[in-house]
Amino acid sequence: MAGRLKKTAYASVRTERRPRWVGFLAAVALCLLLVVTVNYKSFAVFERERVQQKELNEKIEDLADENLALQEEIHYLKTDPKKLEPEAKKLGLERKKEVVSKADETGTAEVPANRQSPTNK
């Protein structure tokens, strides 16, 4: 009888063993959990970098527009005296007083009063 009890006890333990697919299912579940975690973290990093890239592109656009406006202003300051004079006045610069001599019909120029040579009388 003692031999029978051993077999019976062993038989009851054997029937209570887990099926082989349960261990495989646990391994697959752990792998899926790992994959989902890594993908979620990667997606979060990607999303953060996408937002940062969008902000940088907007900043680049703004700076390019500002650069274009400044280049246009430089062009006008170099070529248009009407634009240059107000800017020079802002800086405290004045135009030198110019002495304009007018030529009469004979082709001789008038000499300004402060430049006339003394006359011998």
Strand content: under 5%
Order of helices and strands: HHH
The helix-and-strand class reads mainly alpha
Dominant shape = rod-shaped
Which blocks of ≥5 consecutive residues have pLDDT under 50? none
Please report the distance between the alpha carbons of the first and last residues: 167 Å
Helix amount: 55-70%
Estimate the mean pLDDT confidence. Answer: 79
Largest sheet: none
Number of helices in the DSSP assignment:
3
Computed Rg:
48 Å
- The number of distinct β-strands equals 0
Compact overview of the structure:
By secondary structure, the chain is mainly alpha-helical. It is built from three helices and no strands.
Protein described:
The chain is mainly alpha-helical and 121 residues long. Helices cover 69% and strands 0% of the residues. The chain has three helices and no strands. The protein has helices at residues 2-15, 20-79, 81-90. The relative contact order is 0.03. The mean pLDDT is 79.
